[in-house]
Amino acid sequence: MRYGVVDPSGDWFSFVENRQAQAIHPFIQILRDDGSYVNGIFGFRAHNAIDNSIKLVSNGNFNFKIDSELD
């Protein structure tokens, strides 16, 4: 997962080195997928290697439409 800002410039990354389910951060949870829309929640702790800062993104949510490439 990634968190970035343009002004002032910053770029924070988060990754997991295994495929095990995470109990806390990072996580993404799909709450609903009806074939047209997917929604859920997410949270992650991200690191900026340039200045060694940490950002904690919590209580994130998403809702997006799925378009078929066949349409």
What can you see in these coordinates?
This protein has 71 residues and is mostly beta strands. The chain has a domain at 3-41. It has strands at 2-5, 10-13, 27-33, 37-48, 53-65. It has a three-stranded antiparallel β-sheet, with no helix packed on it. Strands 1-2 form a two-stranded antiparallel sheet. A hairpin with a 3-residue loop joins strand 3 and strand 4. The two termini are 30 Å apart. 4% of the residues are buried. The model has no long low-confidence stretch (mean pLDDT 81).
Structural topology:
Blueprint: E1 2-5, E2 10-13, E3 27-33, E4 37-48, E5 53-65
Antiparallel strand pairs: 1-2, 3-4, 4-5
Keywords:
three-stranded antiparallel β-sheet; two-stranded antiparallel sheet; 5 strands; mainly beta
- Poorly predicted parts: none
* Helix content bin: under 10%
| Coarse structural class | mainly beta
Shape: elongated
Strand content: over 45%
Pattern of helices and strands: EEEEE
Radius of gyration: 15 Å
Taking the sheet with the most strands, its summary is: 3 strands, antiparallel
Strand element count: 5
**Residue-averaged pLDDT:** 81
Strand order of the largest sheet: 3-4-5
Note the total helix count.
Answer: 0
State the distance separating the first and last CA atoms: 30 Å
In summary, what is this structure?
This protein is mainly beta and 71 residues long. 0% of the residues lie in helices and 56% in strands. The radius of gyration is 15 Å and the shape is elongated.
